[in-house]
Design brief:
Elements (H helix, E strand, L loop, with lengths): L7 E2 L1 H4 L2 H5 L2 E5 L5 E5 L10 E8 L2 E16 L2 E4 L2 E3 L5 E4 L4 E7 L2 E8 L2 E9 L5 E10 L4 E13 L12 E5 L2 E5 L7 E4 L4 E13 L1 H5 L5 E14 L4 E7 L8 H22 L1 H4 L6 H9 L2 E3 L9 E3 L10 H13 L4 H12 L25 H16 L2 H20 L6 E2 L6 E2 L13 E4 L2 E4 L9 E3 L30 H11 L4 H19 L6 E2 L6
Antiparallel strand pairs: 1-9, 2-3, 3-4, 4-5, 5-6, 5-13, 7-8, 9-10, 10-11, 11-12, 12-19, 13-18, 14-15, 15-16, 16-19, 17-18, 20-21, 22-23, 23-26, 24-25, 26-27
């Protein structure tokens, strides 16, 4: 693990607004919440913010704290550390000009501000498993003490939306060490606290904050934010002050303890990779440490009554949730390659609970609720993820637990399931599609004069047909050393005669052990075919 920052920028980048705004930072909490912005200190997207909380983990993401405006009083001068763009075109204040250095300390972003002869460091991190953001300021060097004022700008909106104040009045209540903000009756409370500062409640709307990236996307690009609290603190050289933004009434205010907890989490991730990759660890480039930490940011908890330690994978930041297809594609690289086989197991078991009609969910709505199943290939990627998990771990117990689910998925595809997804009895190819629904990896619909139609990878709006079963006729996968799974299949008596005959045809006479291995091997090939433009076949009759 390198002691030097692998990601670091000096004044030549930080002092150039265009360059600094093109570089974004991200910290996460393992349950879907995050904090993010640009290294300039500005926010160019509606998705940027200091506390974007997952109120229904890992979804229900809601922007609660937009920004902190810091003003430093030192040696008779005032220094504004924040950077804001306004709808008028103004950039004010311009705190990016004070940034001497930006770097990552593990997964924690660190800014160093040069204020006359003083150096002030700022760190931002989140506590794992909590919707809690910590912001810590440390006076590294100075000829005297400095005083700081910090203005907390809050919000309460779905992270896809924008706020326009109107006559909205939030309830801001003084509490011990800070304030409690209640956006409206029934809203999750926001706690703004510090054990090192005094706090005054405020209620002033800042109007027409501007998001340049939203303009580029052709979307609404401005909103209003509420100045809810003013903190004041004083720092001597070598001292720190920590500010806590949280949905937890009892969140710890001990910045040093929670910062050490985050650092230990980062180090443990790297150590787990080292233990699983001893031969590579000694020769690995120093930046591998940063990749391992980045991989962890996509892994989130998705608890279920049957799987309280269930996990999932965020498909991308900032606006994606967890998607079935993306989770299964990313699982080997984000978990198995990083030494987190236990996390891979939790993901597979959690998603097995969502299998319905032989299908894996396509995605989970941001607002919570039932998942959507409009995907033809997520089930195939599930088989491939299971295959790779077993190849890496030889975990027969988990495979045995998953086997009834896998067998049921095959049965469902043979019998036919949602969206006309079925195995064609004539040729054994997997058929899918119908009017008005997108099922492929593009997840796009295009409207023309004949109505909605599916947009395919080749530009043709026709349902894909792939062959997931053909290699079940081969015994070549015996060498993959799958365990004996006979006896773990579902009771065949509950299936129709035709279904049993078809499954027997698929599994042939080589036994369940070879059959499931061959099925997974063939489904792997099929899933690769669905992502290879030139090998998908279509039926034009369903383009309407």
């Amino acid at each position: 693990m390198s002691e030097q920052a692998e990601i670091q920028f000096g004044r030549e980048i930080c002092g150039d607004l265009t360059a600094a705004e093109s570089r974004e930072w991200l910290v996460t909490n393992g349950i879907g919440g995050y904090a993010s912005g640009t290294i300039a200190g500005s926010q160019t997207r509606r998705y940027h913010g200091l506390l974007v909380a997952a109120l229904q983990p890992p979804v229900g993401r809601t922007q609660l704290v937009s920004a902190i405006d810091e003003i430093v009083h030192y040696t008779g001068a005032n220094f504004s550390l924040a950077t804001h763009r306004w709808a008028s075109g103004a950039v004010e204040p311009q705190g990016f000009l004070l940034v001497e250095d930006f770097h990552l300390e593990g997964s924690t972003p660190v800014w160093t501000y040069a204020l006359a002869d003083a150096l002030l460091e700022k760190r931002i991190w989140m506590r794992q498993g909590e919707n809690t953001t910590y912001i810590q300021y440390t006076l590294v060097r100075g000829s005297g003490a400095l005083e700081m004022e910090l203005k907390a700008l809050v919000n309460y909106r779905d992270f896809h939306s924008l706020t326009h104040a109107g006559d909205w009045r939030m309830n801001i209540t003084p509490i011990d060490r800070g304030v409690k903000v209640q956006a409206y009756d029934g809203a999750a409370p926001i706690y703004l606290k510090s054990s090192a500062a005094g706090c005054e409640p405020r209620h002033e709307w800042y109007l027409d904050c501007y998001f340049a990236a939203e303009t580029e996307r052709g979307l609404s690009d401005r909103e209003d934010r509420l100045f809810a609290a003013l903190f004041r603190t004083k720092l001597e050289a070598g001292s720190s002050a920590t500010f806590v933004l949280t949905t937890e009434a009892t969140a710890s205010l001990n910045g040093e303890t929670i910062r050490a907890e985050r650092a230990n989490h980062d180090v443990k991730l790297f150590q787990e990779w080292q233990e699983q990759n001893e031969a590579l660890a000694g020769e690995a480039p120093s930046w591998i440490w940063q990749l391992i930490l980045a991989a962890d940011q996509f892994i989130v908890k998705r608890s279920l009554p049957e799987e309280p330690e269930g996990r999932s994978i965020i498909a991308g930041y900032h606006w994606f949730g967890d998607w079935g297809r993306d989770t299964m594609i990313a699982l080997p690289g984000l978990t198995l390659a990083t030494g987190l086989a236990g996390v891979a197991r939790q993901i597979l078991l959690a998603f097995s609970r969502y299998v319905d009609g032989g299908m894996l969910p396509n995605n989970f709505p941001d607002a919570g609720g039932k998942p959507e199943y409009n995907t033809v290939d997520a089930a195939l990627w599930f088989f491939e993820a299971v295959r790779q998990y077993f190849a890496a771990t030889q975990d027969a117990a988990t495979l045995q637990k998953l086997f009834p689910v896998l067998a049921g998925m095959i049965d469902a595809h043979i019998a036919g399931t949602r969206y006309n997804i079925r195995v064609d009895a004539a040729d054994g190819l997997l058929y899918a599609g119908g009017p008005g629904v997108q099922l492929t990896w593009m997840d796009a619909k295009v409207c023309n004069s004949r109505g909605w139609m599916q947009k395919s990878a080749t530009g043709s709006s026709r349902p894909a047909r792939v062959n997931p079963w053909r290699s079940t006729r081969s015994g070549s996968t015996r060498s993959e050393r799958w365990p004996d799974l006979r006896g773990y299949s579902e009771n065949p008596a509950r299936h129709t005669k035709n279904s049993r005959i078809e499954r027997n045809r698929v599994f042939k006479s080589s036994g369940m052990q070879t059959a499931i291995a061959a099925s997974m091997s063939s489904i792997r090939r099929a899933s690769e075919m669905t992502h290879h433009f030139g090998r998908i076949r279509f039926l034009p009759s369903h383009c309407r």
